[in-house]
Design goal:
This protein is an alpha+beta fold and about 160 residues long. The chain folds into two domains: about 1-30; about 30-150, no CATH class. Helices cover about 20% and strands about 45% of the residues. It has two helices and twelve strands. The chain has helices at about 5-30, 120-125, and strands at about 30-40, 40-45, 50, 55-60, 65, 70-75, 80-85, 90-100, 105-120, 130-135, 140, 145-150. Strands 1, 2, 3, 4, 5, 6, 7, 8, 9, 10, 11 and 12 form a twelve-stranded mixed sheet that branches. A hairpin with a 4-residue loop joins strand 8 (about 90-100) and strand 9 (about 105-120). The longest helix has 23 residues, at about 5-30. The N and C termini lie far apart (about 65 Å). About 25% of the residues are buried.
Length: about 160
């Protein structure tokens, strides 16, 4: 087999570019994963309405909606567990997390319905960086487990 001059360098550069692209995609690929679905669940991503299945990767600004008699279980990258009940609407406003330092920030808005949460690594290292909002209040998380319920359709 004969290797042409410069072909090794091109191969290495292509491989490096592929690794960098994979890392960039991993960084933006998902902030959390849908683990369980019961009934009807939709994800609004921009103008698109998606029908997720377990394993579906969520992104910042996604809006997760559950139908009547439906639930969804979500695990965020910092291991925060979110569970939205029937007829809920949850917007994932902001999420960033550094695996190495275990720090980041999370903000969600529950427009309607019920949400239970078990906090993950971000709360342990930066409790002031986690907020859950409804149309009438903002909850700063300092503990580990809580439930929020709202009837409004506020934004």
């Amino acid at each position: 087999m004969r290797i042409r001059p410069g072909s090794w360098a091109r191969t290495c550069l292509c491989g490096l570019a592929l690794l960098l692209c994979q890392q960039a995609l991993a960084d933006i690929a998902g902030i959390g994963t849908i683990k369980t679905i019961t009934g009807e669940v939709q994800v609004q991503r921009g103008a698109a309405t998606l029908t997720p299945v377990p394993g579906f990767e969520l992104q910042e600004q996604d809006v997760v909606r559950t139908g009547a008699a439906s639930t969804v279980g979500i695990v965020m990258r910092d291991k925060t567990i979110l569970s939205a009940g029937a007829s809920s609407e949850l917007r994932l406003d902001k999420f960033n997390f550094d695996n190495k330092t275990q720090t980041g920030a999370m903000q969600t808005t529950l427009r309607k319905g019920r949400l239970s949460a078990i906090s993950g690594a971000i709360v342990k290292h930066s409790p002031e960086a986690v907020q859950f909002k409804t149309s009438t209040m903002t909850l700063g998380v300092r503990g580990t487990e809580f439930i929020i319920e709202t009837e409004g359709g506020g934004s």
